[in-house]
Amino acid sequence: MHSHAENHGKRAIETAHTYMERTKVPTSALQGKSDYFLDSADRIHFFIEKEAADEDGKLKDMKKKFSALNKVGHGLHVKDPTFREYSHSDKVLELVHELGWKDPVLPQSMYIFKQPVTGGEVTSHQDSSFLYTTPRPTCLGLWLALDAATTENGCLWARPGSHRESVRRVFVRNPEHFETGNSDATQLIFETLAGKDPAWEWEGKMPEGCDEFGKGLKDKGFIPVECEAGDLVVIHGQVDHLSLANTSNKPRETFQLHLVEGPSEGITWSPRNWLQYPAGKPFPSLLPRGKRKAEEMEASLQEA
Predict the structure, then answer these.
(1) Which of 42, 118, 139, 197 has a 20 to 30 A CA-CA distance from 59?
(2) How far apart are CA 261 and CA 284, in angstroms?
(3) pLDDT of residue 287
């Protein structure tokens, strides 16, 4: 999986680097007005680090093409056989079922490079902000470490207990652009859901006083989540988490799969979510034979 993604990235940069987007900039400035970003929902698109691009989104240093990669998304589990095989593996299905999901579907996957020296920070956020369902949030993240992740190379930091908090905001398609037809309006915006949460102090940014070594994070309740290559970190959709920049000379690559509960359990994917598949195309189901397989698994677990 590791070398497979690298080969994808190298080919893409050689042939289509001018079409790549910059990441780690304000959403309203980049992702908020980007057909390339929207079209990545069920495809394989490549995104580069902010510092690697000029104001037009073109690479500054053509000799460092691969190290400019930030991530690949968001349909690896749809389009690529290697990632699809992992995403639909029995181990993933068994884990998700034991955690209580009955009809899980897979809207999104990402390969994050977190390059040595150049890998940027990811600010405080809840995954459910970007993958929102009603009448209740059901997002679950499966964060597969492909390298050892430590405080030295930009491991996850999470705030224990934050899974009990409400979803603070959602990343949605702007009705002014998509419904009213104002083509000059920003395509994607954040809308506030919960306004009195103390975590608003650092939502979408780094907590005040935080430095490149994590100073200040523990004061706000965050702890580092260090892990070995091959470890899987399971992230509840409301958990407040972030990662610092990778300023080391060590890689910290991950494959991240996100799922939500499916419609047979009375759950609806928000039609305003930024991520939407083409009309009539459902999210891949984790259950190849639907609920019948889940029921068979549940019966076997009870017998064990």
Answers:
(1) 42
(2) 12
(3) 86
Average pLDDT estimate for 209-220: 84
Count Cβ neighbours within 10 Å for each residue of 217-249 and write b for 16 or more, e otherwise: beebbbebbbbeeeeebebbbbbbbbbbbbeee
- Phi, psi values for residue 254, rounded to 5°: -140, 155
- Whole-angstrom Cα distance, residue 140 to residue 22? 26
Residue 97 three-state SS: helix
d(CA 230, CA 232): 7
Per residue in 68-116, pLDDT (tens digit) is 888 999 999 999 999 999 999 999 999 999 999 999 999 999 999 999 9
Q: Which residue has the tokens 């900039």?
A: 25
Spell out the SS3 assignment of 144-189.
EECCCECCCCCCEEECCCHHHCCCCEEEEECHHHHCCCCCCCCCEE
Between 291-303 and 90-98, two packed helices, what is the crossing angle to 10 degrees? 70
- 22 strand-pairing partners: 48
Amino acid residing at 186: T
All domains of the chain in start order, with CATH: 2-303 (2.60.120.620)
Q: Map residue 58 onto helix, strand or coil.
A: coil
3-class SS at 281?
A: coil
- Tell me the whole-structure pTM to 2 decimals: 0.85
